[in-house]
Amino acid sequence: MYRHQSSAEGDIARDLGRARWIKVLAGRGNVLTREVFSPLWSGELSPGSVQVLLPDTLTPDYSWLDRRSHDLRLFDPGFTPDLLKNQVQANMDYVAQVTRAQPHVELRSFNLPNTCRVIATDRAAYLTFYSSSSHGRNSPCLYARAPGLLYSIALQQFDVVWTNSSPAHPTP
Question: Where residue 90 sits, what CATH number does that domain have?
């Protein structure tokens, strides 16, 4: 277990470097724009497939992203009603741009409870469960090696969301 999810980034980078496939379910997606993922987006790494899930920013009525945004505003006065949506959209646009020439990358969006982050490879999974009273970056991150129960649960969480997702809509 890592005390904060950012403490795991060095090990995540190592596991991404050895991965045959990668699955990412993120609540905001900031990690996707950091150094840990830059070898993947630059083409330095070439796993067989990469699947990325980010929250849906286009749901016109109440969404789970709106719920998470509401929770964040309760303890962080800097969060305006649209800030989280704008951050997710910016990260979605970034991933769409850096992967436009990488056919093995799929970017999808979901409108389901925004309760955790999963970064999984064929070797390991990193899980961060979000609290309704804290930013995800302040949450502990669990490491699960394949095979194992926690690893299977991480993949199951990702697969359930993937099944209920749709193609992402980056800003034109």
Answer: 3.30.870.10
